[in-house]
Every structure is written in structure tokens, then in C-alpha cells.
Amino acid sequence: MNELDPSIKSLFIIAIVILLVFVGFIIMVVLVYNKRQLIQHQENQIKEAEFQNQLLQKELERQKAIQLERERISQDMHDDLGAGISAIKLQAEFLTYKISNEAYKEDIEAIIATSEDMNLAMREILWSLNSKNDTIGNFIDYTSTYVERFLDKTPIQTLLLSEIIEEHTNLAVTARRNLFLVVKEAVHNVYKHSQAKTIQVHFKQVGTEFTIQIIDDGIGITKANKTGNGLTNMALRMENIKGKFEIVPSVKGTYIEIKYRLTTT
């Protein structure tokens, strides 16, 4: 086989070199492009992280402002409204000693009773406004104390049970207030309508599900009052916080179960 002409061989070598240079150039362009894309992607991630951080910072500032406003309203109510209610009660009690007319005394006693109810209602509002109370543990303590005090002078025996995994789990103010009012209404219904001898309030937490069971051994709920006694209102309160309200079938008495899905932070 004859050897290639030297000029052809030189052209062939030059062509290979040019091809290698071209390939090398393409590879370099691809590497540079990929590097720029990577840098651009990292810059976009940094910008997105900064943007999310700014949003988080604004949300934290907003939450802090709300918390400060709640504390201000709470303090103002305690100082002004609380003092005013206490003053009305004291003045009414003083009048009972000065007035001999029994008819007037009854009216004054009604004013005293109303002021006491207003004072209790104000304390409930102050409790719900205080951000330091936004935990399951505090909710259970406050609710349990209320139930015990409310039924203390009645013949109804109270049993309070708690199976809570983490008492410091956050419970938002809206949920906390609605849950309390549902329990309060249920306990009032037991006192007024059930003829029960015992009531059991059971707090349970399974994962992110918070459950409260109110069980009594009374006469139960009849068909006539199944939509009364505040049951509709309790169901609406749970619906407002995306919870569940259920009257569980029971052989004796009334078994109410409310469930609320806790938000994880």
C-alpha cells in the first residue's frame, strides 16, 4: 500500500487538529454555559430565600404587632372595664344596706348578679386575648378550673381526665376560645337539662388531633330538644374552626365529642 502524499498527510493532520480544537471549543462553551446556569440558579435560590425571609420577617412583625395589640386591649379592659364593673358592684352592695324597700333590694341584687356575670365574661375574654395562654396545657387548666368551680355547689360529681402528649402544643386564640365556649355550653346543658349525677370531661391528643369528650349519666337528649340546648350553636362553633362536633350514641346519658386538628409549626 502506497504511503499518502506528504501534503495530503499534512492536511489530514491539520483537519484533525482543527476538529479537536472545535470539539474542545464546544466542550468549553457547554461547560461555561452550565456554570453560568448553575450560578444563575444559585443566585435565584438566594433571591428566593431572601424574599421568603423578608416575608417571614414581615409575618413575624405582624404577629408581634397583633400580640402587642392583644396585650394592650387586655390591659385596658382589665384596668378600665374591670374597675368599672367592680365599682358598680360595690355601689350596689352598699345600697342594699341603705335601702329598706324589699322591691328595690331585689332590683339591686339583680344588678349585683349581672355585674358578677359581666366580670366573669370579661375574665374569659382577657384569658382568650392573652397570647401566653395559647397552649393546650393552659387551655386544659383553665377549662378544668371553670368546670370544677361551676359544678362545685351542685350535686353533680365531676371527673376530669387528660391524655395530652405535649402540653406546650400551640392552640390559636380563635380555636382556644371556641373550644372553651363549646365545653362551657355542654357543661351548662348538663347542669340545666340532664338530671345527671356525674359528668366526665376527657381531654385527649393523638398526633395532631385534639379531642374533648363530655359524658354524663343523665336522661340523655330527647328528639324534642335535639336541635335545642345550644347544640346547633356548638356545632357551628366547631365548624367555624374547621373542627368536628358529634353526639355519640350512648345507652345512657349524653356523649358529646369534639375534635380539632392542631396546626404544626
TrEMBL record:
Its EC number is 2.7.13.3. It comes from the Bacteria. This is histidine kinase. The lineage of its organism: Bacteria, Pseudomonadati, Bacteroidota, Flavobacteriia, Flavobacteriales. Residues 174-264 form the Histidine kinase/HSP90-like ATPase domain. It comes from Flavobacterium profundi. It catalyses: ATP + protein L-histidine = ADP + protein N-phospho-L-histidine. GO terms for molecular function: ATP binding; phosphorelay sensor kinase activity; protein dimerization activity. Residues 39-66 form a coiled coil.
